[in-house]
Amino acid sequence: MTTLRALVVDDEPLARACVRRALRPEDQVEIVAECGDGPEAVRAIRRHRPALVFLDIQLPGMDGFDVLAALVEEPEPPAVVFVTAYDAFALRAFEVHAVDYLLKPFEDARLHRAVAAARARHDAPGADAVRARLSALLDDLARAAGSDGAGRGVARRVLVTDADDRARFLDLAGVHWVSAAGNNVCFHVGRERYTVRMPLRTLLPQLDPARFRRIHRSTIVNLDAIREIQPWFAGDCVVVLKDGQQLRMSRTYRDQVMQPLL
Looking at 87, 116, 145, which one is the last position of a domain? Predict the structure, then answer.
C-alpha cells in the first residue's frame, strides 16, 4: 500500500497536534509538514507535493478557500480534507463535490474514514478529475457568495465550549451581540458568553447580513435583539438591547443599521 504524504494546515498548534495524534495509527500516512497560515501552506504544497492536505478554513493571510484555489493550478492536486468549526453552506458543498471535511471537535474514527476516502481517490487515476472537482466546488462557493443569505460563509451555528469544557453548537440566531478582542470573538447570549479564537474580520462575512450588523469596529449586534437606539454625542448612538445591555454605535456604522427597511 502506497504511503500518503500529508500536510496539516491550521493556525492553532493544538489543533495541528490533534490531527497529528489521530494519525498515529495510520502507518501508511506520513506528515511531511505543518503550516500555520495560508501562504505558508501554498508554499509547502508546492515544495512537498503531498497526496493529502488537512486544511483549516479560518487561516491568517489566505483562508482555506484561497488555498484551495491555488491547489487547482497544481499539476497533481492533493486530496483535501477541510477542518472547520462551522455548520454552514460550505459543508453541504463539500458533500456535493466529494471533498471531505472534519467538523471540530472530530472523533478519531471520523478522521480515519476521511483518510480512507482520500486514499481511494488517490489510488484512482486522474488528476484532471480531482482538479475538475475542486474547480466545481470553487465555482459553487463563488456563485453562492453572490446570492442573498446563501453565501459560502453564512453560518447557522458555531462550535463553542461551555464552562464545563463540553463542546456544543451555539445557534447564531440566538446570539444577542458579538464583541472582539485581538484574535478572539465573544458571543453574548444574555448573561452567557462564549469565546472562540477567531478574528472578527473572519467571522463577519459568515454572518447573515439580514440579521447581524456591525455597529463598532469591535462590535456586531443581532438586529432582532435591539430594543431601541438613542442619540449620543458627535453622531454616535447608544444601542439598547431587549435585555438592557447598552452598546455604543459609531457614526461610521450608523447609516448601515438605521435604514427604514431591513
Answer: 145
